[in-house]
Amino acid sequence: MFGERLWPRTHDRYGSYDFAQLTAAVWTFREFDTALCVGHRDETRTRAILIRHATKFLDRHANLIGGEAGDGLRMVLRLIHLCTVLMEKSPDAECRPMPAPAVDG
């Protein structure tokens, strides 16, 4: 994403995450970037802020549910945040996210 290889992991600089967590984060980031950022395509920092604000209360929920489920959700949120930071740092860098799954209905 944005010039940074996130899979396969070659280091733990961004934490220890699995492929399912990464795909959930990337798909969520892409969906928020498309849906929330209409009218802000040329404003990278604004797009990043909008996405971070959209996920801020989920961290509180992760703390409430606790355990492995809460830890997993927190990692997905950290990865979404990482995508916003990478976007701000290198908005024109190569970005080859995995395709999103088909949604029925």
Description:
The chain has three helices and no strands. It has a domain at 19-89. The chain starts with 18 loop residues before the first helix and ends in a 16-residue tail after the last helix. Helix 1 crosses helix 3 and helix 2 packs antiparallel against helix 3 (67-89). The mean pLDDT is 89. 59% of the residues lie in helices and 0% in strands. It has 105 residues and is mostly helical.
Average predicted confidence as pLDDT: 89
Structural class: mainly alpha
- Cα-atom radius of gyration: 14 Å
Shape: globular
Helix content: 55-70%
Beta percentage is under 5%
Number of helices: 3
- Total number of β-strand segments? 0
Strand/helix succession: HHH
Give a brief rundown of this model:
The protein is an all-alpha fold and 105 residues long. 59% of the residues lie in helices and 0% in strands.
Describe how the helices and strands are arranged.
Layout: H1 19-35, H2 44-65, H3 67-89
What key phrases describe this protein's structure?
single chain, 105 residues, mainly alpha, 3 helices, 59% helix
